[in-house]
Every structure is written in structure tokens, then in C-alpha cells.
Amino acid sequence: MSPRTALAVLALLLAHPLSAQVYQWRDADGKVHFTDTPPPQSQAVEGAQLPAGGSAVPPVAAEPKAPPALSGDGADPLYDKGRKQCSAAIARMPVLINQTQTLGRDAVKQRKISQEQLDRAMYLMDDFYKGLKRSERECTRDYVVSEKGRSGTDCLADTPDVLSFGVCMRFAEWERTFR
User: Fold this and answer.
1) Are 114 and 108 in contact (CB under 8 A)?
2) Where would I find the DUF4124 domain in this sequence (predicted)?
3) pLDDT of 1-15, one tens digit each?
4) Kindly report the CA angle at 29 between 111 and 122, in degrees rounded to 5?
5) Is 170 part of a structural domain of the chain?
6) What distance separates the 2 farthest-apart alpha carbons in the chain?
7) Contact between residue 82 and residue 150 where contact means Cβ atoms under 8 Å apart
8) Distance, CA of 52 to CA of 49 (rounded, Å)
9) pLDDT tens column, 24-68
């Protein structure tokens, strides 16, 4: 075999693992795992395909500029409230995720809920966290222009604990899971 052919075969063999599917899942202790095999008791969910040899981080889009009418000069009370609510929501989210994990693990140990129920609750929290605009400027813009953004941010900023947050967001089974 010629060196050129051997090099081509070697390149093909090395490139194959780059196209493998990657699974992300949390175990009973809340630890995140990345594997090439589906997690135990998995169910199909829609995921993003990563390009072979590409980056897992999507390209960062330029931050949209706020419309001229949005300013923090006190002239727009909705903008001012949005800025305050967003600041509170961004600060609270990690605390609520931690509470969800702690209460959920305890409930699973006491057999009040199943591991599957905890996984669903954590998926909802992760999904909400991904959708949360984590820069105060972006969050405030979303708060002003979107009723849905305003509703989720208000729930996060104004509720005292995980249970009331889930009820406010109308997450199915939330109250039964974290009662």
C-alpha cells in the first residue's frame, strides 16, 4: 500500500469518531454526564447536530441594540421595572436550580417521587435557564417587548421558592413533585 493510500485510510479512521452522537444527562445526584451512549431510561428528545470537527458553542450573534424609546432615564416605567426584575431574576436562577436539585434528590430518596419526575423537573429548569436572557440589557429588552418574557421574568423574580416558581410558570406536575 502506498504511503498516500495509508494516510487517506488513517484520516478516514480518525475522522469517524468526530461524527459520533453525544448525549448529555444528569444522574441521581444531579451530576451532568456526556457520553456516546444513550443515558439509562432515556427517551427521545430533539437535539442539535454538531458539525464534524466543529465547535459545540454556537457563533455569538451581535447583541441587538435597544430601540431608542427604551432608556433607563425614568421616562419609561416598564423599562425601569424590567431592569429591576431582570436583575433579581438573573441572580435568583442559580439558587432555584440548586433548590430543585436538593428537594428533588430528597424526594427521590424518600420515594415521594420517581427519578423520572426529578429528571423532568430538572429538564424544565434547564430549559427555562437556557431561555433566560442572562445579560440584564437583553433581558430588559425582552421584558419590554414580549409578554411571555415579562411573565417568566416576573415569576422568577417574585416567587419565594421553587414550588411557587413552578406553579407560577404552570409547569405540569410541579406542585405534586415538590410539595
Assistant:
1) yes
2) 10-63
3) 677 776 666 555 555
4) 80
5) yes
6) 77
7) yes
8) 9
9) 767 767 677 667 677 766 655 555 555 555 545 445 554 444 444
Q: What percent of the chain has pLDDT over 90?
A: 9
Distance CA 123, CA 172 (A): 12
- Looking at the structure, do residues 170 and 83 belong to the same domain, yes or no? yes
- Rounded-to-integer distance, Cα 128 and Cα 124, Å: 6
pLDDT in tens, 114-136: 899 888 888 888 888 877 767 88
CA distance 95 to 157: 12
Compute the distance between CA of residue 46 and CA of residue 28 in angstroms, rounded to an integer: 22
Question: Phi/psi at 44 (nearest 5 deg)?
Answer: -70, 130
- How confident is the model at residue 167, as a pLDDT? 86
Amino acid letter, residue 150: R
Q: Is residue 14 part of a domain?
A: yes
Do 28 and 109 share a domain, yes or no?
Answer: no
Pair 153, 139: CB distance under 8 Å: yes
Determine what percent of the chain falls in helix, strand and coil, rounding each to the nearest 5: 55, 5, 40
* Alpha-carbon gap, residue 117 to 97, rounded angstroms: 15
